[in-house]
Amino acid sequence: MQFTTKRDGNRIDVSVSGKLTFADSATFPQFVEQVTKGSGICDIDLGGLSFIDSTGMSLFVHVYDAAQVSGLKVVIRNATGAVSETLRRASFDTLFEFR
Amino acid sequence: MSMTNAEVDAVVAARLDDAMRDANGGAARPLAFSAFDSGKVEDLAQFLEAAVGVWIDVACKGHAAFQIPPDADLVLRVSTAAAIRLDVADAVARAMMKRFQHLQPLESDIRCALQEAIGNAVIHGNLGLDGSLRATMEGLRIFSATMEQRQSDPALACLPITIRAKAHHDGVTFVVEDMGAGFTPPTIGPEPIPAVAAGGLGLAIIHRCCAQLRFDSGGRCIDMAFRL
């Protein structure tokens, strides 16, 4: 998995690509810390993500928990195909707004 | 036997030859096998396209020839380090779909279930990590740091994960085995998959993807049957 972040005032845009799996576990704390700083809007673009497993999904649970604490609004964008299906099947669309 | 992409020393080669002789003695038909060095492989899927029955990663070192299972269409034994670095689930699923095209309707479910089984074999099996740590952010930091530390430990990084597949006219069976401490599998029902961070989600996904699920060897071995 690769990710980039771009901060503009109280807004942060995150782009995630590749495959998000157990193999990326070591990077999760860094991802959560970078993405959930602040209390504005966090827009996570999953358009470049081709696969996600259960460990990858757990990353978004931590993003949700951290956002609840800081008051950050998180939007998931461009999740398609198997990624969208997997996240919705595990009810992540009840945690985040999907666009 | 063939050697692929690796300089395999004579002792390892002899041990693998002996192991294959034993395995083939119990098999319905002999399997060709290939030893390879996962450290030199970038695209495992392309690698597995060759019509070889048993693939053994020499990075498994002393474990490479340990109980090679007979009676399978495809056996892949990879080191824990390779299972982290390479997309093993995708490679194995694609190799089986290519060899047994009637299984293609099952590819998506097989890919998902294999990914979860291999992830569990690495994290909870060979690396012995406690998934419940991930319930909190502080626990996640400990979990991630411990994972990095353990996957860098050569004694753990070389532990094998063995995947074997057997095709049938109406489906396919995949078995994933690790060398960890094992566990007592929980009872999993057909409940919706929960959005949780602490673990257990992977088994729920496997349960949803396959027709029949069974554990052996004290939880070190998961046997997943998929039906057309």
TrEMBL record, chain A:
Q: Which SUPFAM superfamilies does the record associate with it? A: SpoIIaa-like
> Record's CDD domains?
STAS_anti-anti-sigma_factors (cd07043)
One Pfam annotation, family name? STAS
Annotated InterPro entries: STAS_dom (IPR002645), STAS_dom_sf (IPR036513)
Q: Domain of life of the organism in this record?
A: Bacteria
Q: Where do the STAS domain residues begin and end?
A: 14-99
Q: What is this protein called?
A: STAS domain-containing protein
- Organism name: Paramagnetospirillum kuznetsovii
Organism lineage reads as: Bacteria, Pseudomonadati, Pseudomonadota, Alphaproteobacteria, Rhodospirillales
